[in-house]
Amino acid sequence: xxxxxxxxxxxxxxxxxxxxxxIANGCxxxxxxxxxxxxxxxxxxxxxxxxCKECYKLEREEKFKNSAPVKLMNELVEKKSSEKLENxxxxxxxxxxxxxxxxxxxxxxxxxxxxxxxxxxxxAEKVMEVMDENLGLPKxxxxxAFSGGEANTPFxxxxxxxxxxxxxxxxxxxxxxxxxxxxxxxxxxDDIVGGLxxxxxxxxxxxxxxxxxxxxxxxxxxxxxxNGRYKSVWHRILVTPNGNRRSIASFYNPSLxxxxxxxxxxxxxxxxxxxxxxxxxxxxxxxxxTEQKFLPKEPRFHAVNAM
Length: 307
Prior knowledge:
Elements: E1 5-7, H1 16-30, E2 32-36, H2 42-65, H3 68-79, E3 85-89, E4 92-96, H4 109-135, H5 141-147, E5 155-163, E6 172-173, E7 175-178, E8 184-189, E9 196-200, E10 203-206, E11 214-218, H6 220-225, E12 235-237, E13 245-253, E14 259-260, E15 280-281, H7 282-292, H8 298-305
Helix pairs in contact: 1-4, 2-4, 7-8
């Protein structure tokens, strides 16, 4: 069993209806799918791989060797303990947000990543417009809902992660199982080193590495906005004794001031008092999520409803 792989270029040809249906299936049945021929050039993607690899070597690798996960792992091994590091991730990670400092010692890193993220944001909005159409919503409905009014704009940020080789992969997670808090997530994952898995029908399934594809998944806010028609899906990353997995995850999220609720066109008009999903401000949801990221998601909706 493998997650859907969809040729995004076919939206513009004779196979548009079939491609729209494939994306609808990816959203409704999987919550994850891979896009190929998505419009971002292979030349740019190769540069992204290069600068991220160099950035890790120049600016991150030595720090990771002295990080908490490595120290805790060494302590476990010295004790000859069979315990697992349950609350730690074997991950080196930094953020690329507008308001934070980007790595500055890797030649071409800032320029290349800025170019890539500008193109990725355009792709994200194209994907959301397909979702709008498949759901019977007005064009740009999701984008406007994420804006939360004319004074605000959706948030678009990126997390660059590496999962270095782990000498004892049975003792630690790469990244613990969770659903994503936000809207639409676009992942540029490693071509060779796997490890990403999603939970489908009670079984963990590998997300197969496909060179230069973009993995799309839907977050908690898409689940709320679609009134559960599209679900956010549990996923995790396993570590390996060989290979340094690259993972560049970009998040198209609501503004922290945006009010999120099921779209009226998708709401249960018969049982409005018993709606599964509450109406809330995204910033309030993030306050809850920060504390409960690795816990079941349903209590998060209840907690934010009570605020």
